[in-house]
TrEMBL record:
Signal peptide: none annotated. GO terms for cellular component: cytosol. Belongs to the purine/pyrimidine phosphoribosyltransferase family. It comes from Thermobaculum terrenum (strain ATCC BAA-798 / CCMEE 7001 / YNP1). The keyword Kinase does not apply. This is Hypoxanthine phosphoribosyltransferase. GO terms for biological process: GMP salvage; guanine salvage; hypoxanthine metabolic process; IMP salvage; purine ribonucleoside salvage. Pfam families: Pribosyltran. GO terms for molecular function: guanine phosphoribosyltransferase activity; hypoxanthine phosphoribosyltransferase activity; magnesium ion binding; nucleotide binding.
Length: 186
């Protein structure tokens, strides 16, 4: 285990088993459609790539990059689009794929922005949910795991753009970020 990690919260095999389950549910629900899975960069990069391999149907993938609170562990509520979609999603069935829903502010902004483009439907798939921190109500149609209010890294999730390559979800030792208001996506 990486020495900056206090505890492994979700192991690699637990992640992979859950993703197989989510992939099967999504494949069943979208078997008669060609959905567009939208990975929210950078945090969802591992999740979306494993999820699509667990989803044996016709689908498109696209990516958006948003930044909500650069270099902070707390959300400012200000969300900026760093990279937009490459396609028109009007009339398409959209599945947003997120790493973690914390305050819900990022997802709420994404839903509003994408809804304005008139997709046929929008659903949300999130690997992790820190429900105790929610500030706005957002729907999660497919969820991997509920987690406690701890700052986690690994499997795409970073602190200061590090630890994304860990194959598990771990709790970062708090002394590493205490006193720093600092980190979010990108
Ligand atoms: P929200 O807008 O829901 O507060 O924030 C969602 C984003 O905050 C996530 O996409 C992620 O980038 C970041 N975030 C929230 N909680 C954590 C956490 O425990 N660890 C990491 N690495 N990022 C988090
Ligand atoms: Mg995210
Ligand atoms: Mg981040």
């Amino acid at each position: 285990m990486n020495s900056d990690i206090e505890q492994i919260l979700i192991t690699e095999s637990e992640l992979q088993a859950k993703i197989k389950e989510l992939g099967s549910r999504i494949a069943e629900d979208y078997k008669d459609k060609i959905p567009v899975l939208i990975g929210v960069l950078n945090g969802a990069v591992m999740f979306v790539s494993d999820l699509i391999r667990a989803c044996p149907i016709q689908l498109n993938i696209d990516f958006m990059a948003v930044s909500s609170y650069q270099d902070s562990t707390e959300s400012s509520g200000v969300v900026k689009i760093i990279k937009d979609l490459d396609r028109n999603i009007s009339g398409r069935h959209i599945l947003i794929v997120e790493d973690i829903i914390d305050t819900g502010l990022t997802l709420s902004y994404l839903l509003e922005t994408l809804q304005a483009r008139h997709p046929a439907s929008i659903k949300v798939c999130a690997l992790l949910d820190k429900a105790s921190r929610r500030r706005v109500n957002v729907p999660i149609d497919y969820l991997g795991f509920q987690i406690p209010d701890k700052f986690v890294v690994g499997y795409g999730l970073d602190f200061r753009d590090l630890y994304r390559n860990l194959p598990y979800i771990g709790v970062l030792k708090p002394y590493l970020y205490e006193g720093i208001t600092g980190d979010n996506d990108i």
